[in-house]
């Protein structure tokens, strides 16, 4: 899941200042799960902005709408029927959603209301943790399902560093030592031999350095 | 300037907040009051009596548990008609759904943070807990008293703020 958080309200107010008719556009997928840009959060932000405008004596119309997935063209296209009513779209989608809407409606200013954060897991209600950096070359098999690139503060592929205390990271004592978790888990499956392999420095070209990545699956195409 | 008595104190507070206009003094505060249905003496008959007593100054919203409240309910009330929006819950530890009032408390705090971020007084949103012996009417009266020093909401009367 992509996680995000709402931008500070003053930043959003500054960005929408030039516009009088705004569509607040939520997304019902990842950002709804992390309570940043779903239907409820979209309604709350729209209500807050309308109140702020009234206090300022500004004439501002904000309507709300939430699409199931703001990063999928098929869910964005139906907005074509209403988009002309607005000067701008305030998107509560992740960065991918914002750009997808901008690409489909090139003549309408799209304003991001969220800061997109990381690929994460909902660990508990109201608690999300980063556990994947999207490196493009998954190593989870070798490390027992625990990603050292994400969960080790030093991103060590040939660990541990030796600095952990009571199973906690020396960089941040609140964080469990990823290498302790890796060793415990591999021990449980009698698979510690996987750690005998010496990893070369990570090839980050699979993630970045070659421009924006894309995936093309002909079997999924029209 | 020396003031004595509750009314004069409220006038002083209005002076401090810059809304000492005569018309504001006479304007009725509108309260949106959400309450758990387990609040003492909060039957439909009690509700109607309160509505008769306060007229348009109070809008009552019974909910099966205070945990049903969302920050959005409080914000929408302030946006659309109310000068203040409050919630009455069961005392801590006495929610029949165990955590309803604790969750409600966090959502009220969230709504307070939001309105403060746009320049409204945080006390326009509030929660009353631990008053299990007081009737709905008594609590409503106390809340009305506690918000009476507030200016009319600048959201509803933008040119008066």
How would you explain this protein's 3D organization?
The complex is a heterodimer of chains A (222) and B (161). Chain A is of the alpha/beta class and 222 residues long. Chain A folds into two domains: 2-118, Rossmann fold; 136-206, no CATH class. Helices cover 27% and strands 19% of the residues of chain A. Chain A has helices spanning 9-16, 30-33, 39-56, 73-76, 95-104, 148-151, 178-188, and strands at 2-6, 21-27, 61-67, 88-91, 110-112, 114-124, 127-132. In chain A, strands 3-2-4-5 form a four-stranded parallel beta sheet, with helices on both faces. In chain A, a hairpin with a 2-residue loop joins strand 6 and strand 7. Chain A is elongated and about 65 Å long. Chain B has 161 residues and is of the alpha/beta class. Chain B has one domain (27-148): Rossmann fold, CATH 3.40.50.960. Helix content of chain B is 42%, strand content 13%. In chain B, strands 2-1-3-4 form a four-stranded parallel beta sheet, sandwiched between helices. Chain B starts with 5 loop residues before the first helix and ends in a 14-residue tail after the last helix. The A-B interface holds A 8-10, 40, 43-44, 47-48, 50-52, 54-57 and B 70-72, 75-76, 78-79, 114-115, 117-120, 154-156, 158-159, 161.
Please sum up the structure shown:
With 222 residues, chain A is α/β, with parallel strands linked by helices.
